[in-house]
Amino acid sequence: MKILNLRKLGPGLLFAGAAIGVSHLVQSTRAGADFGFGLLWALIISIILKYPFFQFGSRFALATKTSLLDGYYKLGKIYLLIFFLISLGTIFTIQTAVTIVTASLASTIFGFSNNLMLLSTFIVLICFIILLIGNYKFLDNLIKIIISALALSTLIALLIAVIRNNDSFELTQVFPYDTSIIFLAALIGWMPAPLDISVWQSLWILEKKKTNVINYQEGIFDFNVGYFGTFILGICFLSLGALVMYGSGTGFSDVGSVFARQFIELYTSTLGTTVYPIIVIAAFTTMFSTALTTLDASPRSMHKSSHLLFPRLSFFNYKFWLIILSLGTICIFHFLLDEMATLVQIATVLSFVTAPFYAYLNLKLVTSDLMPSKYKPSRFLINFSYAGLVFLTLFALAFLNIII
What is the pLDDT of residue 248? Predict the structure, then answer.
């Protein structure tokens, strides 16, 4: 296969932009800050065992030229209806959560405003305008710049941290049995992303194919670049937390604005003020890319699923859902911000417990008659998928047992 040029890359980087958010900046950094390198095993296992199910989204879209949502509908209308109802219950909360973290960082870094509701609203409107005017093609080009800046700044920050670190560090792996096990569940569940993002990936591939001819091999390569990019950056953020914050004695706040300030202050105090611009770029681009890509992907998936389920309701298009999601997110900022913790917990639980559902459907699709034989996964990958499905099922049951 010829080396892929930048024009052919796109959906994989959008996946990375959506995935590298709270799971990396907050949870991976906290894992390193609280446990050093002790939870590296959790990050590695989660990414490896989830790989087939995310890859199946790209594989199905490239082979059939249809999205996973089309596949769910053909397997049974009930599957798509479940997806629609779950998404309807989570898209507003997820968008609000990532936007608040983005606004908290912007407030801390740039000092624009201490009013997080106002700043969060402004960020939603900026993302809304970008998507409304530029559509997919503009997003595709913009995300290449954002992800490049994110990767470069994060790697530079890690290099500086390694050079300036004079202490030895342990690679002994640990398993937390106390209240930290809830944090472990969150780290595994959201690393690199919830499994429903495989649906977004399949939709982005179809949009990409409208403007660029990409074959199956190129599409899988693009996905691998994005997916394993999240793997590398996850390790980078965990390592930064371990090298810079571990043993500092500082407790990290659950309040986004406070955490953002602690995040920036600890890095600059340890690595020096000269590294401040690098940390700023890495942190802000991480969250802004997530806010932007989720605001695009959720309306795209709601449009497709509502079109299949309710074909007569033609007004349920991409712009309709983009407006609804933007307005709904802004309303949560202004009226339900005090209930944000509860809303996030509900969205988190749904993401965790539905992971086996999406894993099962994706595996069923790529092994069904809907999938051309030559594109079906190998026997090894299928068997590996079963191992991942068992892991996700046991993980979901364990998580429910913890929180109930």
Answer: 67
- Do the domain assignments include residue 19? yes
User: Torsion over CA of 370, 374, 380 and 385, rounded to 10 degrees?
Assistant: -20
What the block records as the tokens of 323 is 């407006």
Do residues 193 and 57 touch, judged by C-beta distance below 8 A? no
Report, as an integer, the average pLDDT of 199-204.
Answer: 92
How far is 355 from 396, CA to CA, in rounded Å? 8
CATH code of 320's domain? 1.20.1740.10
Residue 212 has a CB neighbour count (10 Å cut-off) of 15
The answer to whether residue 94 sits within a structural domain is yes
The distance of Cα 391 from the centroid of its chain, to the nearest Å, equals 20
1 in a domain, yes or no? no
Other CB atoms within 10 Å distance of the CB of residue 381: 16
Instruction: Provide the phi-psi class of 247: left if phi over 0, else alpha when psi is between -120 and 50, else beta.
Output: left
Q: pLDDT digits over 135-178, tens only?
A: 777 777 777 787 788 788 788 888 888 887 777 677 888 888 76
pLDDT of residue 271: 66
Position 367 in a domain: yes
Q: How far apart are CA 101 and CA 120, in angstroms?
A: 9
Task: Look up residue 53 and give its two tokens.
Answer: 């199910």
First to last CA, the chain: 50
Domain span holding position 158: 6-403
pTM over 0.85: yes
Write down the H helix ranges in 241-370: 256-271, 276-309, 318-335, 340-353, 355-366
Number of domains in the chain: 1
